[in-house]
Amino acid sequence: MLRSALAHYRSQQRLQAVAVAAARSAWPAPARLTPVLTVVMRRAAQDGAQAVDDMLAEQNIEAPADGVVSAAAFAASASDGRPLRSLLEQAQTVRALELMSVTQVTDAGRVAAGVGIAARVDVGWTRMVNPPCCPRCAVLAGKFFRWNQGFQRHPGCDCRHIPTREDTAGDVRTDPRALFTQGKVNGVTKAEQKAISEGADHSQVINARRALYMDPAGRRLTSESTTAHGRSPGVRLTPEQIYRESGDDRVEAVRLLKRFGYLL
After folding, report:
1. What is the pTM of this model?
2. How many CA atoms lie within 13 A of 209 on its CB side?
């Protein structure tokens, strides 16, 4: 695994811990968390954008970016585009507020990294998991994705992008089967574990479940989606929506990322 990827993951963990502590201090007035969380989210976005540069450099991949990632843009609203305060005010318990805070910080770093990848020609990403992980994340571990393929996630998901090119992706991939056979996947039934250990395809075994992820607001989504479809008044267009609307046109995606302030 890349040293820079591990350093990035540990940095993000520290920021998540700060967010949890701040959430506990703010309770029972969730709105009080907004200014502190905004600062932490911005720092997470800065770290995510820098990590793209560091990981590409470690792989000796030269890929100039068509702009500079604006960390402030990822702290200007919640990761689903709504005002951050309105999201936090929905928390009914301190635990819910902690989870929201961690999700927002994680998404700020992860989505900023995704924008940094989209800003480069011929760069995609593989999925880095932090074992033990859930079955759905384990199945996707090490898979190569194009720049515009949304990052499937659930609340508390701490998987990361590793920017790379498809012809070098094998150097940074992790082995999903090894995760299962070594007992590093949570929530696997005895029957599923037995089937995989006897040679069954791990993807087919896990995909037989009803595969659901959630967006940052807690809405249930199919595994093919990452954000709610459509736009609501007052909700900012997110990078994931930009990728979806741009299709395979990276030039148009970069134009929209700049228009909405994610790239400078």
Report:
1. 0.85
2. 18
